[in-house]
Amino acid sequence: MIQDLAKTHESMYKTAPSALFFAPGRVNLIGEHTDYSGGFVFPAALDLGIYGAFSFREDAQKRIYSASFADLGVVTLDPALEKKASLGFANYVQAVLWSLKEEGYALPKGFDITLMSTLPDGAGLSSSAALEMLIGYMMNDVFALKLELTTLVRLAKKAENEYMGVASGIMDQFAVGFGKEDHGIFLNTQTLTFEHVPLHFENHTLILTNTNKKRALVDSAYNERFASVKDAGQGLAFALGQTPQDVWEAHKVNLSPRTALRGDHVVSENARTLAAVEALKAQDYLTFGALLVASHASLKEAFEVSCEELDYLVEEHLALGALGARMTGAGFGGTMIALYAGDAPDFTELKARYQARFGFACAIYEASIASGVTRLR
Ligand code: GLA
After folding, report:
1. Which atom in ligand 1 lies closest to the alpha carbon of residue 160?
2. How is the chain split into domains, by residue range?
3. According to the CATH classification, is domain 2-197 in 3.40.30.10?
4. What is the pLDDT of residues 77-123, one digit of tens each?
5. What pTM value is reported for the model?
6. Ligand 1 atom at minimal distance to the Cα of residue 41
């Protein structure tokens, strides 16, 4: 991949890259839809991600090419960083430059960037956070901005929220930034304190299954959940994601049934996340698996962000003997995870049944937990 990337850069821009970078995608093990109310999350970085090559230019132009969007060719960024539909994926790049500019970093020199990705787009594995973090990390390095990783995470989130206009928590950017090989990131999204927890999956297999469902209206549904979680937390002394069960039970009697249900998910998911991290530390995979199953049930019934394809895959994996299975990420499609003791079983029949039922294929792969954003060369 690295050689391919350098070669493509050279053929696009007639100059060799001066630096190469990588930013991973993420999978969330548990703690879903809790990161925008100050709750706990437990994501991990994947070995799938976005590779980027960089070189400075003599003039002030800022250009970018992505092999994933080859039909766009080399895109020249707008000097005023105005968001335009025609710029496609490059809007995410502009978003990060805008975020840096807001912080007082103007990036005076022009440059050329080439991107190549092993991360499926729109699969709920945070390809947008990976791109944002890749660009932020790259700019910090090549322009010697000396920003801390936490600042880059915050700026990438700001790019997503304020420039791209997508409400979201900090989990994705944080996981891309702070991933560690074979470790989960147990993060308190209220304080941003975190702990790398060893996963010890040597005798287990973590399987990712992408529903390949075309996701429609994800943003509006996400924003609706975002708003109801805010409503549910109104008037509490703590952030909803830090509220103990008994305090919540007393508070929720004044809420509409739907808002109470959304809050029920957040409060119970937090308790599950804490328990899941404890279970993993004790290498109690049965308990961990049961918590994944309970998480999915809550996301399906109380938070209502699952879908038929995800529910079907969870049932199928459990029927094949998985210790636990659940949707991961925002939901409404995207990817689900399943944890197996030992090696994974044969998935040929599962895939055929899925195809027959939904009319399109799912994609199954083994997850490898890797490090966060980095400079490769
Ligand atoms: C998306 C958002 C995250 C988080 C998850 C749900 O991935 O970007 O901030 O809210 O959904 O847990």
Report:
1. 8
2. 2-197, 200-366
3. no
4. 999 999 999 999 999 999 999 999 999 998 999 999 999 999 988 89
5. 0.96
6. 12
